[in-house]
Amino acid sequence: MTLNQNTANRSLQGEFDERGYVILSDFLEPAVVSAGRMEMEKLVDQQADRLIAAGKVRDRLANEPFETRFFKLYEHCLDDAPKSFRRELHLSGLFDLFFHSHLLDVVEGLLGGEIRLYPNYTARPKFPDWEGTQVLWHQDGGYTEQLESADGKVETLRMVNVWTPLVPAHIENGCMQFIPGTQKLGTVSHGHKKHYLKIVEEYLKPRLDQAVNI
């Protein structure tokens, strides 16, 4: 490892420890993103075929742009729409994303060596004005706290969550949001909502004005 790499790793580690996240801009090569989009398009093709077979739609909307096609297919039957894809993602075109060598180096810099990809990687669609794809304010520990670790505490499960959009992300179409530093609170209480968990207002409300959009 070079001196510059050591310096960069220390910088990322410092940001991660202080804010709870780091932003890696222009990180993935266009070919990796393109391959991911192509695999997602295949999944949307499968969804279109199922909807037609069920008599829910008549048109596969094959010429609809990638950014809007999935929503357009389910626009009039949103309650039938999948909120996420998980088991479906064992696809060759996603290998270079999941096992991106530089990304794995960054994660190893944060966690140390001998890392593994936790098998709940997920692709999430975003539909406008539908609560089924509006992921609520949460900590990942709120979902994983039921997992057992050596001493029963989520904080001992050394994990990071890596997220990337496959389309330009902004507030209107569902960008990522963080409240810096809240990882230092430990795992706070979450309440069960219809589709997702949500941090209880006691912890969330006083800190919302600190939120940043990524």
Which keywords apply here?
214 residues, two-stranded antiparallel ribbon, 35% helix, two-stranded antiparallel sheet, mainly alpha
**SS content category:** mainly alpha
Could you describe the largest sheet, including whether it forms a barrel? 2 strands, antiparallel
DSSP E strands, number: 4
N→C terminal distance? 30 Å
What is the string of SSEs from the N terminus onward? HHHHHHEEEHE
Strand order of the largest sheet: 1-4
Number of domains: 1
Backbone CA Rg: 19 Å
- How many individual helices? 7
Instruction: List the quaternary state of the chains.
Output: single chain
Average pLDDT for all residues = 90
What does this structure look like?
This protein has 214 residues and is mainly alpha-helical. The protein has one domain (3-213). Helix content is 35%, strand content 5%. The strands form two sheets. Strands 1-4 form a two-stranded antiparallel sheet. The protein has a two-stranded antiparallel sheet with strand order 2-3. Helix 2 (30-53) packs parallel to helix 3. It is globular and about 55 Å long. It starts with a helix and ends with a strand. 9% of the residues are buried. The model has no long low-confidence stretch (mean pLDDT 90).
Topology:
Elements: H1 3-19, H2 30-53, H3 66-74, H4 95-98, H5 101-111, H6 140-144, E1 177-178, E2 190-192, E3 197-199, H7 201-204, E4 212-213
Antiparallel strand pairs: 1-4, 2-3
